[in-house]
Specification:
mainly alpha, 276 residues, 9 helices
């Protein structure tokens, strides 16, 4: 429907527009990008290509005069992370299904994606450095770092045996996801998770990605702690509550298993594969 009503189209203007029209155009742009972010998150979890992957998209939103800057900076950073994630998902689909793109330089594309992700990280650190003190902690910032670290796992895990530093970067990302979630729970901020896109279920998904890394490199202590975090959040996820209303009791272990299977559907790779 978003595409049908033309939200993905950029409106070209040839004359000076007034403030009211500028605000309306920005609302339209932000509505599209909110839908875009949701679509990318669902695509990553389900192993599908993002819906907007093959069409042109409007420019990333910008901050309007007299607008609260902090919230918009958070939203703009999220759109950048999701753009990175969408490109990486497309890259992985081409990697494991070469017929999608015959003319494809895997090494060049990987390096490009890694550079783009690094630029996003610099923007994230510049505007929202991660804080460890409770009086400075902001859940929205935590969510941005969770999303970024999941994106890093998405890119580096399939190359952990064939590209220098990929193994280290995916492990660091998994450790960051575990640590940030622990920080949120330590300050009883889990209720804020309901306010983010896809809520607690999205955080469980990010934890599941960390679980796959810890299993891969055999970090048993971190694996156990992360599974416990995922179980705790899965037990209070609205998705679990809905499932319990419609079928026999679905345990937290069942929910975590579902999360891991859907993620692994996208992240499975051939250990013997090398960059061509």
């Amino acid at each position: 429907m978003c595409k049908d009503i033309g939200l993905s189209y950029e409106i070209k203007t040839t004359a000076t527009i007034d403030d009211v029209m500028m605000i309306e155009m920005e609302k339209r742009k932000r509505t599209f990008w909110a839908i875009y972010c949701y679509d990318v998150m669902m695509s990553a979890e389900n192993g599908n290509l993002p819906y907007f992957n093959t069409i042109s998209v409007p420019p990333i939103p910008h901050i309007l005069p007299d607008e609260e800057q902090e919230k918009m900076i958070h939203f703009i950073l999220l759109t950048k992370i999701m753009r990175n994630q969408s490109d990486i998902i497309n890259h992985l689909h081409v990697k494991y299904n070469k017929k999608l793109d015959i003319q494809w330089n895997e090494e060049k594309m990987f390096n490009q994606l890694a550079n783009e992700l690094h630029e996003t990280f610099k923007s994230l650190q510049l505007h929202n450095p991660m804080q460890q003190q409770t009086n400075h902690m902001c859940y929205t910032v935590c969510f941005l770092y969770l999303a970024f670290n999941f994106t890093a796992i998405l890119l580096y895990r399939p190359y952990h045996q064939v590209v220098n530093s990929s193994n280290q970067r995916m492990v660091e990302a998994a450790l960051n996801i575990k640590s940030i979630t622990e920080l949120i729970l330590a300050y009883d901020a889990f209720e804020d998770m309901y306010c983010s896109i896809r809520g607690i279920q999205q955080i469980v998904h990010y934890l599941s990605s960390a679980v796959t890394v810890f299993k891969l490199v055999d970090l048993q202590k971190e694996l156990k702690l992360t599974v416990e975090l995922a179980r705790k959040l899965a037990s209070i996820s609205p998705v679990t509550e809905v499932a319990n209303d419609k079928q026999p009791l679905l345990t937290a272990n069942d929910m975590l298993s579902i999360q891991q299977q859907s993620l692994l559907g996208l992240l499975l790779f051939d250990d013997n594969h090398t960059i061509q």
